[in-house]
Amino acid sequence: MATLILVRHGRSTANTSGVLAGRTPGVLLDERGAAQAAELPARLAGLPIAAAVSSPLERCQETLRPLLDARPGLALHTDERISECDYGDWSGRKLAELLEDPLMEVVQQHPSAAAFPGGESMPAMQARAVEAVREWNARVEAEHGADAVFVMCSHGDIIKSVVADALGMHLDLFQRILVEPCSLTAIRYTRLRPFLMRLGETGDVGSLAPRPAKESGADDGRAVVGGGAGAP
What we know:
The protein contains eight helices and six strands, in the order E-H-H-E-H-E-H-H-H-E-H-E-E-H. The chain is 35% helix and 15% strand. Helix 2 (31-43) runs parallel beside helix 3 and helix 6 packs across helix 7 (156-166).
């Protein structure tokens, strides 16, 4: 039952210029984003991170670089399946301009029916991301044990779609989820169901460090009486 820490990349030049970056090359962290990335090692200092996985896009790789520098033994794995949604013809365009496109209302209100011209559909995006997360979860647990913690740096829509899956939410509800740049979202997958441990956390997450079994409570997906104070 490994714990996944989803990191949204730090603030990028596209975020501040109001552009839908998508997979456009050369989109990097801005000054604030670089500062957010520099703070990441301290925020994760209390966690024994077993693996780091990243989207191939530069802004995600940049976000994890300070963490990798602080932990020389931590290797970086790149997985195309957690890359940004392929927005196709929308990539690189101003969001203000895209708001006038009728498809934007579908994206916001009925994303399970949204497919980007020249790109992919939102259900396809979610399917590949969830597949990647679950495969990495199984791999990390097999290699490092049930208390392992691993980090995955990706993008807003990817993280929101993974959270929706973990909560059993329909994709049409995923726009209700917000994750800020360089925020941390934690999910622990168990034999029976996932637990959302943190959502869009912008501070320290040291309390997610593995605890002795006698302190951790029920962690096999069974209901916990009294509001779940001892849940994993």
